[in-house]
Specification:
Elements: H1 25-35, H2 44-51, H3 53-69, H4 76-99, H5 104-122, H6 128-144, H7 162-181, H8 202-215, H9 229-256, H10 263-266, H11 272-286, H12 290-310, H13 313-319, H14 325-328, H15 330-353, H16 359-382, H17 394-417, H18 427-434, H19 436-453, H20 461-485
Amino acid sequence: MPWGLGCPYSAGNSSVEACTWSTDAENYRKLKEVAYLNHEGSNAFSCVALMLVYPLTVILHLHAAGVVARTTNLGLLHNAIWVVCELTAATLPLVFAFSSPHLVRNSLIMHSCVCAFFAAYSKPLLAWPRYFSQFLASRAARRAGTAASNFTYIDEKGEKIRFVAEYRAVIMITTCVAILAVDFPALFSRTHAKTEEFGYSLMDLGTGSFIIASAVCSKTARGRGNVGRLQSLLKQAAKLRPILLLGCIRFFSLWGIDYHVPTSEYGVHWNFFFTIAALSFVASVADLGSRASGVAGVLLLVCYQAFLSLLGGGDYILHAPRLGPFSANKEGILSCAGYLGIHWLGVAIGSHIRSARPASDRASRMLLFALGGFAITAALDALGVPVSHRMCNLPYATFVLGVNALVMGLLAWIDLEWPRPRPPLPLVYGGIQDSMFATFLLANLLTGAVNVLLQPLLIPAGAALLIMFVYTLVFTLPFAICRYKGVVLKFW
């Protein structure tokens, strides 16, 4: 057969001209059935290393914004340079890194070198000793309590913490990048596709990270209790209608275009929109406070793992035949317990971020949470309980929590240590963190459109990377404009 995954590279050809970029529908469907299989996964270290791209991207934008700020005498050209800076420094590094996650070492080296270049360019050589002296003096003053030290905010009321907004934005951007990049095997290594049963991969982190990114800014995490339980439930039920509708539309549209979706992910009919709806409804009914959410999250995850390991739940999810509606969607339905535990722990983390403790203590504790999550994951793996995204088991939950706590902790320390005032939050970050679900929906629609119009499994890396750039521009630019206009697209 003259074509193969990611042709021409995996087909062994040496030129793009020798590659067949498309084939007939029957052959392409057969190719899809094996293209996304990932039985071994990657490793935990490569997944954690990818998380370092987030703080490096934020630092890169801060340096680039500082350089652009020096061009104020250029008038309209300054505004054009500022827009280009935002789109390139704030998003393109994420596209490079998360379109080819197996090249994480190259990405980190490239990010570090570019950041070093901007840092060297931003200040004259002789000014660096004085800058470091000022930095050390201000840091000592903050630690001694003689200088104010708190996180920066992106709103006038002082309610929206900047590093949380950055975290939510970069998580959503890279999640949207990965859901299309995985369709290009010439670009995206199969080791980072979703695992079949056990293992670590970038794609496995997406759903858990989305849940945490939403939970840390939930009403409960922000200390805003529901007013009137019945009224709150009715309001939440009304909010679930569009999500359930989207879930149904996704199922029927994918079925109508014969789009291949592995049943090992959520089952035959279930999808992530249904999971979101289930979590939202149960969390509203339970109506737990922030501290109770943390306790409930731990207890639920432990009990769910006991069900998987001791009562045969794990074997049922992995091997039971699909004989009815429940068994046909066993992965999606049962994994809701694990995702609900992750949600409740995310609420507890969000409450901790907004607590009255000193900001440096909160940032340090986030890194301790990350260390604890990784340690528990490693201990469970050593005891014979490996990570499973398919089941959303306890080690998967602790690993996802560790990864997200690491990102938030690093961004928090950047926020504390960076000289004030910081440059404005990129419009694209602000718009996406304001409208996360709308961003996710638009990215899913664009991903479906690309798969209908093209055959991504056969497209070579160069063309695939160009498509990724255009795709990222299309799904991010509308929300940057919304942020500029003060519009929030939020219905969940």
